[in-house]
Amino acid sequence: MIVLGNSESWPGIGTAAEHLQNGAHGLDALVPGLSLVEAETKVRSVGYGGWPNLLGDMEFDASVMDGTTRDYGAVAGVPMTLEVTRLAKAVLDNLPHTMLVGEGARRYADELGLAKDPFLLEHSKKVWWRKLEAVMTLEQKAAFPNTDLAPLTKAITDPEKVRDTTVFLCKDSHNNICTATSTSGWAWKYPGRVGDSPIPGAGFYADSRYGAAACTHTGEMTMRCGTARTVVLALRLGISLDDALRLAITELQELESGYIGGVVIHALDAMGKHRVVNVGCDEEIVYWVWTAEQGTPEKRRAVLAEDLLSGKVEALS
Ligand code: GLY
User: Fold this and answer.
1) Residue 52 covered by a domain
2) Which residue in 43, 45, 101, 127 has a CA-CA distance of 20 to 30 Å to 190?
3) Distance CA 223, CA 192 (A)
């Protein structure tokens, strides 16, 4: 058994691990873990602690995937909803659909009795306005929000870390490999922007026969490359986990146009071996991992894409 989570998964990885130890199905372990991350205000990319869109409104994306059945459920651009991963799981469990967006997703949250909450923390509101103000002309500021928002999207290229996500991947005691993701998306995004976290094959993919991958940071790139699917399909073709990641890294690095930023790929193979790789993020990237042998979650450093490509990284054993 293993649970792998990104840097911001710390509030929930222990809970996910406990559920796995008690024999839970992977998704029944990951969803309560992610709910704790969503409720933690110190995590600045998801739930309560997340960042708003250009209008100052929170819009959340989330997904769950069961790699045994390849069932998945997702929600995107959901307003006023903290427990979006639970909502995504309810889409998987109860609807003949795979994804709900915006007001339809919120309507379904009402049917499930999930609390409605505008969420924006006072601190987030101040930072949101300060950054927006800095990129607006006096004219735009006077007219805001009745001004074109597209020219303001330059605010979202701010170097502060604003495009993270929480991802969890696991292999449970029944050998199901699953993923779950949750995010408030790219801070200061254009309203309605959807990232890779609810898009299967881009921000996540799981197939219990071969493995799983889930990505954080620049969803605009992983959606163009189908990064998570590349990793899992390569595993299916008999390629090792590291070579599968080398292929996914190469595809990302081949992109020359459009918005180019960092991506972090978290991946597991069917044996439960894992690798986390930093593709072009300036900051050091860490992640969390728990295994049944290890007992408690450990924080580790991701390898650099350049080191994996040049063979500097020790092979997985
Ligand atoms: N990877 C998170 C996003 O692009 O929204």
Assistant:
1) yes
2) 43
3) 16
What is the rounded end-to-end Cα distance, in angstroms, of the chain? 16
Query: Domain limits at 167?
Result: 2-310
Tell me the HSE value of 160 on the side-chain side, using a 13 A CA sphere. 13
Number of domains in the chain: 1
Tens digit of pLDDT for each residue in 177-196?
999 999 988 889 999 999 99
- The residue length of the chain stands at 317
Give me ligand 1 centre to Cα 165, in Å: 6
The pick from 60, 217, 279 for probing ligand 1's pocket by mutation, whose C-beta has the most ligand atoms within 8 angstroms, reads 217
Asked whether residue 177 is assigned to any structural domain, the reply reads yes
In short, whether 185's Cβ falls inside 6 Å of ligand 1 is yes
Give one DSSP letter per residue of 187-222, joined into a string: TTPPTT---STTSBTTTEEEETTTEEEEEEE-HHHH
217 touches ligand 1 (CB under 6 Å): yes
Whole-model pTM above 0.85? Answer: yes
C-alpha to C-alpha distance for 210 and 269, rounded to whole angstroms: 6
Per-residue pLDDT tens for 246-291?
Answer: 999 999 999 999 999 999 999 999 999 999 999 999 989 999 999 9
Q: What angle do CA 98, 178, 309 make, to 5 degrees?
A: 110
Residue 167 near residue 178, CB atoms below 8 Å: no
Identify the CATH number of the domain in which residue 188 sits.
Answer: 3.60.20.30
Nearest-angstrom CA–CA distance, 215 and 272: 18
**Atom 4 of ligand 1, residue of closest alpha carbon:** 219
Residue 315 lies in a domain: no
Task: Show the tokens assigned to 106.
Answer: 């919120």
Task: Say yes or no: CB of residue 63 within 6 Å of ligand 1.
Answer: no
Ligand 1 pocket check for 196: Cβ under 6 Å? yes
